[in-house]
Amino acid sequence: MIFKRKREATSFAAIVTELEGAVAARDGDRTGPAFTAMMHGVQSASDAECRLAGPRLAALLPAFPPTGPRPMLAMAAGFCVERGADPVACAEPILGGVRQDLLDALEFARRWTATGAAEDELPEPDEKIIDDALTTRLGGDAYEATRLALAWCSIEEWQPPALAVLCRSAEVRRRHASAILPACRDLAALERHDLKCLAYALAVLEEPLVVLHRPTGTGFEIRIGGIGDNFQLHTLLAHVLVGGGHVPGTAPSAESVRLATDPEPAQGRTRTVATGAFELLAPNGERIWNEGLPDDIPVVEGRRLLVLDEPMYQRSWNADRFFPHLPGSAELTRVLTADETRTWFAHTSPGNEIRRPS
What we know:
The protein is 45% helix and 11% strand. It has helices at 12-24, 28-41, 47-59, 70-82, 87-115, 134-138, 142-154, 159-166, 170-188, 196-202, 230-241, 254-261, 338-345, and strands at 206-213, 218-225, 273-275, 279-281, 299-300, 303-309, 316-318, 329-335. Strands 1, 2, 4, 5, 6 and 8 form a six-stranded mixed beta sheet that branches. The protein is globular, with a radius of gyration of 24 Å.
């Protein structure tokens, strides 16, 4: 949860109205106190007040200057989404801010590297880098340099509100994720920010997989959605295929399946253990790691193609899902015909990289 609730009576709608008026009037003397009052008031607002205020707060984001407290405003809107505000109505301003700050942070890194010595490293995301020498280092005017540096320093603060909308709506992910994911991964690759949760949420798939079971020579079309990592995918594939009697093996426990699929968010960590039923392989035989994402599954002939083999060794993991507020699904849409299965198997090679114990 973005904020812990505080108990105090307040008219939150009136506070939001005052902030809207101050922003519309571009009155800095009013906006500062109104923003402070809103940040305090949101923590004690009722669920009903939050549901109404969320889209109003999100709509203010484009009017806030890039050098202002936009991430904190986004956090307030995201907190309202956690309390029931419509994620679709809040998503565009929040995720637009995320995308712009990702791009600005990447531009900061480009300029910092271009003007420094070869051995210079990118700085940690700490506002202490905003000093008198910043404009000289980055070029441009002081406002632009400050804007880029603030994006570099504050990008992680955008994660909670981004996750609030991404994890509560497949429509939000469909509309916005593909435009943001490349910049998120590029910035994460610089190894100065922890953007794992944001990258994972942006990469969630809602699409069919072609799944081949090598030991039995059978094939399936399975539609997945809302799956946060391949641990969860592994559990649900075993539930559908082993639990459904389509392939041999040991089906996952009912509790591990519930934890992967229950629409109600998990309440804290559990000690439930899931056990692997397969080796997950790419068509070329390379292993697809449980620690990775369904997005790692390669696309072949326009479809993601996953090969299941017998497990190389027994492995198990905690059955809690990566995103508590994002229930996963895996539905067997059809069993492939023998001809279809042979055609798909023609796109694969044995997992030569995996050496089975003798």
